[in-house]
Design a protein that fits this description.
mainly beta; OB fold (Dihydrolipoamide Acetyltransferase, E2P); 2 domains; five-stranded mixed β-barrel; four-stranded antiparallel beta sheet; 13 strands; 48% strand; Rpb7-like; DNA-directed RNA polymerase subunit; Rpb7-like_N; RNA_pol_Rpb7-like_N_sf; transcription
Amino acid sequence: MFYLSNIEHTLRLPPHLLDLPLHDSIKGELEGLFLDKVIANLGLCISVYDINSVSGGFIFPGDGASTYTVCFRLVMFRPFVGEVIVAKVKESDADGLRLSLGFFDDIYVPVHLMPHPSHPEPDPENKRQIRWIWEFGGENFPIDGTDEIRFRVHSVNYPPIPLVLETEKQEEKEKQAKPDEQKKAPPKPFAPMVVTGSLDADGLGPVSWWI
C-alpha cells in the first residue's frame, strides 16, 4: 500500500528562506509542492521521507532565489491490484459505494463488483440516501456507514486531466443568459487517482459479517 519513491527535482528556494537551515527550508518547499498531490503511476504523496542529496545553489541573473538539484524520497500511497484494504463508507447510491481511508476518498465499488446478489433500497434512517443489501441464505445483510468495509483492489487508474472544451464554455454562457432555467447538478470534482474495489468474494464487505 505504501512505497518509497526516489525523486530528483530542480527546486527554486525563495530568498526569505535562506536564513533557515538548508535542509529544513528545502523540506518545507518540497512538502508544499508534493504533499497530498498525486503523481501519475506513483500514487498519492503522504510525506517527504528524507533528502538524499542537495547540489547546486545557483543564483541566476535577475533572480534573487537560489536553485538546487534535490534528490529525495517520498512516501507514496499506491495500492496494488489484489490487495485487501479496510475503509469506511463515504457515500452510497444506485451506482454503488464510495469508500474512504480518511486521507484518500476516491475509492469506488461499482454495482457489478458488489456482493452477489445485492440490491439497493432506501435507507430507513435517511430516505434520501440509498443503502445496499446483500441477500444470502434467505437473510438480508445491509451495508451501512457504521461498519468498516473490507474490499479488494480491482484496479488503480490515473485519469488524464480534462480539458475545458469550447462547447462547455458556450453552455456556460447560455446558462448565464437564462438564469431562470433549472440548473444541472454540478459535475463531480476531478480525481487524479481512482481506485476501484470489489466486495464480491468471501471475507469481503462489512467486517461484522465475518466475525
